[in-house]
């Protein structure tokens, strides 16, 4: 996989979420069109999404409306019970192994050279999969889908501890990357069978699941794509902040329902340490925030423990405790809607507030 560009998941300085425009068209696969194929069969096709129609091995669109359409003799939806309860569940499936499937979409606007972007999607493992794998997403500067070569690819990962839950729950995975420039097309499931075999064989412990030595079978359901440009908050811009201003400290990770900081958070925290060492008069407040899932009082306590963990890390790196405060606000100050998984993820955050300069 030497042509894969695996980009770092942390930012060189600080990045603040701006809720910028989502560049993915029909990101939830809720919009669709219908047509009759050469056999006069009615086909549901998600709008703005394209497959290799010459290859019959293409992604499957699971449409709520198709499932409820009595015209079809055979209707199937992986979450049929939830659909019958009234939920609107539209998404696609991507087969990564044994064969590979790809889905393409044209961005609302080309990516800008040297600008940083945030890519995120929800995935869930197909129950008959016997393995798991990180998923590759490609970027192309050409809308000619017959050209299989992407300019570069990013690799979206999941935590080792989430392997079991991927078969029962949706999992949000994301990465940050710098655009080469003029990318117009996103390719879901980019890569070859060999690429995905190499991913699996690089870490059997993480990716094996009920594997009995036969062919690999890896298939995901995909939903809720989000791609937006990031507003980088560099050191000179932090200097422009006034007392009382705050920003979200990105890429700070905790295990579910815990306050222990994961190691992949350390690069970002060390950048904060460096900044505080260069600006010795600044005092900051570190606040934890959660979504609205669970008991309100418990969320407040968890958010405070997480904020204190960040404070403890900074102290361990030599920052005086006199310059640091910790607060836990739970779900009281959302910055996005709690009605969507993306919104809830935005609300689970660590914020930095300037309290003295």
Give a written overview of the molecule.
This protein is of the alpha+beta class. It has two domains: 216 residues, Jelly Rolls (Sandwich); 123 residues, 60s Ribosomal Protein L30, Chain: A, CATH 3.30.1330.60. The protein contains eight helices and 18 strands. The protein has a five-stranded antiparallel sheet, with no helix packed on it. A five-stranded antiparallel sheet has the order 5-6-13-8-11. The protein has a four-stranded mixed sheet with strand order 15-18-16-17. Helix 7 links the parallel strand 16 and strand 17. The chain is globular. The N terminus is likely disordered.
**Full CATH superfamily name of the largest domain:** Galactose-binding domain-like
Using DSSP, what is the number of strands?
A: 18
Percent of residues in beta strands?
25-35%
Briefly note the CATH topology name of the largest domain. Jelly Rolls
For the record, the count of structural domains works out to 2
By secondary-structure content and strand pairing, the structural class works out as: alpha+beta
| Tally of contiguous helical segments | 8
* 3D shape: globular
Ends apart, CA distance between termini? 48 Å
- The helix-strand sequence is EEEEEHHEEEEEEEHHEEHEHEHEHE
Low-confidence stretches: 1-19
* CATH architectural type of the largest domain: Sandwich
Overall average residue pLDDT: 85
């Amino acid at each position: 996989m030497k042509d894969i560009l695996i980009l770092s998941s942390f930012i060189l300085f600080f990045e603040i979420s701006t809720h910028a425009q989502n560049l993915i068209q029909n990101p939830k696969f809720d919009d669709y069109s219908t047509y009759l194929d050469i056999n006069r069969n009615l086909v549901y096709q998600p709008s703005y999404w394209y497959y290799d129609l010459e290859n019959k091995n293409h992604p499957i669109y699971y449409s709520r409306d198709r499932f409820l359409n009595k015209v079809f003799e055979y209707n199937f939806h992986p979450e049929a019970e939830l659909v019958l309860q009234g939920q609107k569940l539209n998404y696609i499936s991507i087969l990564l192994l044994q064969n590979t499937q790809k889905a393409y979409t044209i961005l609302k606007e080309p990516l800008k050279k040297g600008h940083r972007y945030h890519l995120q999607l929800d995935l869930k493992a197909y129950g008959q999969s016997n393995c798991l794998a990180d998923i590759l997403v490609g970027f192309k500067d050409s809308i000619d889908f017959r050209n299989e070569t992407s300019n570069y690819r990013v690799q979206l990962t999941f935590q080792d501890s989430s392997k079991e839950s991927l078969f029962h729950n949706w999992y949000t995975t994301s990465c940050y990357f710098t655009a080469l420039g003029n990318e117009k097309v996103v390719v879901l499931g980019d890569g070859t069978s060999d690429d995905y075999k190499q991913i699996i064989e690089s870490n059997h412990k993480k990716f094996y699941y009920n594997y009995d030595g036969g062919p690999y079978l890896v298939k995901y359901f995909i939903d809720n794509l989000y791609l937006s440009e990031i507003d980088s908050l560099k050191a000179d811009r932090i200097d422009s902040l006034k007392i009382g201003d705050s920003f979200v400290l990105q890429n700070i990770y905790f295990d579910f329902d815990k306050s222990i900081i994961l190691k992949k958070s350390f690069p970002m925290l060390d950048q904060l340490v460096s900044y505080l060492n260069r600006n010795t008069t600044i005092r900051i407040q570190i606040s934890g925030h959660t979504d609205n899932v669970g008991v309100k009082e418990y969320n407040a306590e968890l958010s405070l423990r997480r904020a204190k963990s960040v404070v403890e890390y900074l102290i361990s790196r030599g920052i005086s405790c006199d310059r640091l405060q910790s607060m836990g606000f739970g779900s009281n100050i959302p910055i996005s809607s709690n009605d969507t998984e993306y919104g809830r993820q935005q609300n689970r955050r660590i914020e930095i507030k300037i309290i003295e300069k």
